[in-house]
Write a structure and sequence with these properties.
Number of strands of chain A: 23
Number of helices of chain A: 18
Largest interface: C-D, 60 and 60 residues
Oligomer: homotetramer
Radius of gyration of chain A: 23 Å
Distance between the termini of chain A: 27 Å
Strand order of the largest sheet of chain A: 3-2-4-1-10-9-11
Strand content of chain A: 25-35%
């Protein structure tokens, strides 16, 4: 799903989905490899660039080392690079690849040498008032090297820090001026400070090392870094972690909460738990709801790998129909494979996914995916299944059609490219060549996440801010 | 499975598994991108190096261009590289990564400028008498730049070709001296010649373009290259494809046949069909046989992604137990991720696979994989499942323990590293911490491939040559 | 000489010698290649990094492109790089390699996107009050990425520009606060503004294109860029060049002038003319003065290539003794040749220079160089000459011993490394093994540059500021 | 001169000028850095590629390591590369850059693993019967990867070695079949064998280490490697150097000798001594002869740097006229500077050489160079001198016009590009705009090299073979 989105997404430069990570090891053990592992577990949140900044809390003041570059964690961090970095405290970042804003100047962490020392910052989310903040800073002579709102926050923090007693005080002052959805980790050579937006739009959680702490966008990054899940950071909470332990400041806490439903639909990893909800359970339950809403009598239920598989399992369970894999996925064909010519576009789909004919032949089946963007890929898949002998192909989508822009960090393609903007479900069904098509209903989204207050603005135009 | 094997395999320099591909387009259309697509579909057969050689059948005589390098197809062939290559006839190769013999000098195709022009050669398999052939050539002053038996065949072919009327005549003469299992495609600037060993140990099949032909190790490479499956190359058949059509020479055909069972167990891709057998069906049937042999009363059946999933589906079907995914696989963590230190080895497993707790908690389950090499990975997985709350973990392996070396091209780890060589199944079960362990029985292998004559020497020490 | 200096220079991060270049072509022709040529002619002023920024005066507002990197002009600018740049206005820079401050973050031009657009800046010289300026900026939240005073000027200029009507107004305001010796060219997308420090310590001159202008550190860069020498920029003059022509502001002009004598001794190129004095003539005259002061009866006069050759010619002329080349210089052995081990250090000298035995054998000779730093190289040369059969070797140095630091941009090694700081001329003569040694006298420096007011502070401790 | 030649030279793939080097250190000290130094001193003989092969005479049999690549010695061998090589015996090579045959496959040494072990080979010169030898080998199935005759010799040697008792025996057998001019060093893991062609066309000399030996194309490479000159290798001599000392085989010695005059005119370095003649003396004497033949009354004599400087000194001495430098050479502008467009060609000359106006103004002068190829560069220089105020410019060329091809390794441009082929000296004089022009006379060449028998075939069409 992510790849389909990125293929069609275009411009709005400040929008992005990312993963953030922070760690401090009180025993003084090196954390660079654990940051790599953590970022590896968060890689699904962003494949454009990766980076880390580290420091030694016992070292000379102000010494933050960093490395960041375009590419996957495995490309940016080789053994020889890691050998040049060391420290027992650090932050890391993976950035989502959106066409247009792809640039090394937007790679994070931002590490800035300022009057009082050095600080590093990583950020996931979107600041809706970043243009005003940017103008205000630029008017003082601040020069921006990239185009992201994360850089604006970094400079804002530096300027605020100069007239603040501590970095956490500066973070609190800056956060009071930020609007939007965000999770930020700031780092001075001896401290990490995490903050989550007051509505809890973006996720951030806390884990515990044997002797130290971890902050991460998702809980799936904790285990690989050797940490155990403690709790989610509260919406609006500023958490400061130093050699002396944890300090929590909830002065920005709000009554209203609005957790992004997209995290459960496809951003977050299956094995993550966010604000009390297992992502896996959410998707199973979504599939079940879809089955109750749009049941159909078929022989097998399957999903588009990997984004539709779990909702398909839920759909199958609800109806007591066997769940089976019907596609072979080629995991070697990723971002960097030679671009298909127009003529090769159909063959390119075959390169990524091919049908297992033995399963499909003569069968009536349901195919579940998490979304339809332009519809061309789904049309190809339906055609492939029919060619392999499928008697019926019923498509089920585990999210409602998104019709409205997201201002809080989800990079939704522009209207003109979204098939749901120009066609009705019936017309889409015809266009993709399916026997039937069913979308998740907005009111069924609650079944995924129980009573968690959700932001569903991209579906229902109901914005919290 | 492949990755586990490669981690522990060590030395025997001449052993390798590879994928070969050949194509000719009578209409004169460029084939370079189709070779890339074909190699992309064969990438599972080898990730060490990739290469292609192409020529224009209407161009000046003798002009074969090529490019090869270490890495995945997507790394070796970028758009700019492809732009420098063109032709309507070509061969391609992907090479398996085995420790020790990893070298750019072993990358294929071998393209040699000799007295009568230029020829290119790609090869999958192992020649058991290559040392004698190599000595004979070296004694005439031939210099080898790599260590592979493929290079020996290439030089042997050049020397033979000088005193032969055609390349197919030379191929026939050389093949008559080769022992072992192999699929070879040789190419002159205007012809491609394919040959499969007389016992059919290694696979090779023929596809048809709108106006032209394709040869490939597996049928899964045909569709992406725009071809339709025609038939398998016969064991011992020499097939010559030119602008004038196809010519078949079966003078080397043998009565005896012995198809490698490993292709069905894990080399070949699910959606390939070889010698009349769907690989998917073979694995489903293997799982069913395993279920009949070692049934157990559990709540769910699952497999290790991706190698054990389909046998697990078969196992589940046979017993009527639900098949469910229990692991989240991180597809971003591949060959090149930073190597774990000893201390991090356990965390590294978590980075690749993590348990979906919601599925596992409180459940009795069967976990299917296609093999156990050293046992450490399986032990980790069992431990992870138990930690996530699994009440029972029963392990089923969809192949017998391999106990004997393969002389025909399968890179089996040395005895000392194979857990099955030192421990009984009961001891292995204890070591990996499972509640029960069941291996596929040698006599059940027949259920996978019907009445196909098989080479099972690595299991039963019964070698055909 | 430059290389010897750089070998021993160490730390003071803000010191540097550089070359600056600016160009505008009113006809709209591309200037990128002419900038390359100009920088190539200024390459002797700095080999650490090179860069250029260009813009199209008819293009969309604010579009300045740039490229800069570590290395020689020929390494930084290849054809493919140049193809990515275009414009009819631009600035360029070459930077001197001093140990310690060598970093890509110090490469110029500095190109900054600020509130009102983009500006680029190149700078040669040293600002003595840069620390105060830096603190003042940092206190407003400005973040510096390198360590050079040039970056301080750039940010100071940005901040000033925001509250100024034009860039030339901003340059004038900034210049009024700068202390030290400098030549600066600032560039907005449609203008270039040059300024030279009020004392004329650093050089800057103006050339005329057929239809346009060039600014350059030295006149030798004009011809290769297709320009003719017009005049030197006046000390303290701010010159603004736009599509509408040239504007000159002399509000900062000072009565006092102090041109750096080092430019004539060795920084500038032989074929440059600065403030009315030909560099070649200055060196010939220096050699003549040296000959008058320290004549000696020898067979031939020679110089250390290339730094001592012209003073040697002057010395020879004055005494009517033949000037001959006695060393073969290896021009392939430059900055990047493998570093010699301690044991190889003597051989390394041989690699750079070797004696022409036929010339030297049985001869009494004078060897001229422009300076002695540690004395080890000169000692080696004298030894080589004696080994080749020289009967007498008299060393003459065409500058006085430098004994005091330079605050205006010349990177003089620290005291402890300067042989002249610890030894008397007699002791140095003995240490280098010469038959006699003569240094240029401070009072003779005037003969090089006629009545030009000079800064000779490094020799006489007499600082203008 | 070399650069001018290479600019216009075109195709004949087998022609090349190169430098060879071999070394053995009986004390077992590493020789890799000394090979670098030696190749650095031979760099003027070839700038296209560089390489070395080394072995440890006390190490395991057959272990020859090597590294070679396109580029200068300083580019091919960095510290990190050298750290990967070690041995106390080795050979090295620098290759001349000729358009057309420039390819990494022609880089030397050729290192071949053959039946009896490994051997390496470096070669300077040209084999006139290489096509026959190549056919003979190709007919046995030998495959060539490059296009140089050096590779032919290497394979011929391998094939011969298989049926010989020692490498020196094989070298002698091969040499008996070679025709042309050459200097070759072959190396087995424990021996180096040098050979010079029977006529002595190509140079090769022997140097002595404290405990070991060096072979090199020119004596200038000995000092930097820590060796003292012993003697030239005799024409036709095969010299074998092992741990046991030196062995000399003169069975191929010929009565006739023909030393290449071009080595003295411009190939060799000034400080080299070849076959008893100092290169410096040869050029001084050439300049003197030129002065006697074409005297002229001028104020100063100068030369084109660097190729014409010494002949100019000789010219000046003979007539008692002052020799002075009139050009500033830019040593930073080498092979890799951006190529000039047609329009920039004149400026490009200025970038390399600029006139010192002060010297030239109002003067009558002689300008000496070693050759004229197309005449365009010389015409530019004359024009530059006149523009700078020269009253008269008399051109003198220190070699006769070359009119005939060289079959022994000198890469002479094709006839159509040589100005001397289409124009008479008078016409050339007019074309280059000189006041007078004088070429060295063929009969005067003897004055350069005393009674040394010379090959002057490129001037007089008198070939020895």
């Amino acid at each position: 799903m992510c790849e389909q989105l990125s293929e069609v997404s275009v411009d709005d430069k400040l929008n992005e989905e990312c993963g953030v990570f922070g760690i401090i090891d009180y025993d003084g053990n090196d954390v660079t490899r654990r940051i790599c592992y953590g970022l590896g577990a968060l890689q699904h949140r962003g494949q454009e660039s990766a980076g880390m900044a580290v420091s030694d809390t016992n070292g000379p003041k102000g010494n933050i080392m960093y490395h960041k570059d375009m590419g996957l964690v495995s490309e940016v961090f080789r053994d020889e690079t890691l050998n040049g970095l060391s420290g027992n405290i650090g932050v890391g970042h993976v950035r989502y690849s959106t066409t247009g804003s792809s640039s090394k100047f937007n790679a994070q962490p931002f590490v800035l040498n300022y009057l009082k020392g050095t600080l590093a910052l990583v950020h996931n989310g979107n600041i809706t008032n970043s243009e005003e903040l940017k103008y205000e800073l630029a008017n003082e002579g601040i020069v921006f090297h990239g185009t992201s709102d994360s850089e604006v926050i970094a400079y804002k923090l530096v300027r605020t820090r100069i007239r603040s007693a501590t970095i956490e005080e500066a973070v609190a002052k800056v956060a009071a001026e930020l609007k939007g959805g965000y999770a930020i980790i700031a780092m001075s050579p001896r401290k990490i400070v995490g903050i989550r937006d007051p509505f809890g739009i973006k996720p951030l959680c806390l884990g515990k090392l044997e002797n130290g702490y971890v902050l991460a966008s998702e809980s799936c990054a904790l285990t690989v870094a050797g940490a155990e899940f403690v709790r989610d950071i509260e919406p609006g909470e500023i958490i400061t972690i130093t050699q002396d332990g944890i300090k929590s400041d909830i002065s920005l806490k709000s009554e209203k909460r609005a957790h992004c439903i997209f995290e459960y639909i496809y951003f977050a990893r299956l094995d993550s738990k966010m604000d009390g909800i297992n992502v896996y359970d959410a998707r199973i339950n979504g599939g079940r709801a879809l089955a109750r809403r749009y049941p159909v009598d078929v022989d097998i239920v399957s999903g588009v790998p990997d984004s539709g598989l779990i909702a398909a399992e839920g759909y199958a369970k609800e109806l007591g129909i066997p769940f089976e894999l019907v596609f072979q996925k080629n995991s070697y064909v990723g971002r960097t494979f030679i671009k298909p010519t127009q003529e090769e576009r159909t063959r390119a789909v075959h390169l990524k996914l091919s049908v297992l004919e033995s399963v499909v032949k003569g069968k009536r089946l349901v195919l579940v995916d998490d979304s339809i963007v332009r519809g061309t890929t789904m049309a190809n898949l339906v055609k492939m299944l029919r060619k392999a002998g499928a008697k019926e192909v019923h498509v089920r989508i585990s999210s409602p059609p998104f019709l409205y822009p997201c201002y809080y960090g989800t990079d939704i393609p522009s209207n003109s490219q979204l098939i749901a903007n120009s066609l009705s479900p019936e017309e889409i069904c015809e266009k993709i060549g399916a026997d039937s098509l069913g979308y998740m209903q907005i009111e069924d989204l609650e079944t995924m996440t129980k009573d968690l207050p959700l932001c569903k603005a991209c579906f229902d135009n109901n914005y919290i801010i």
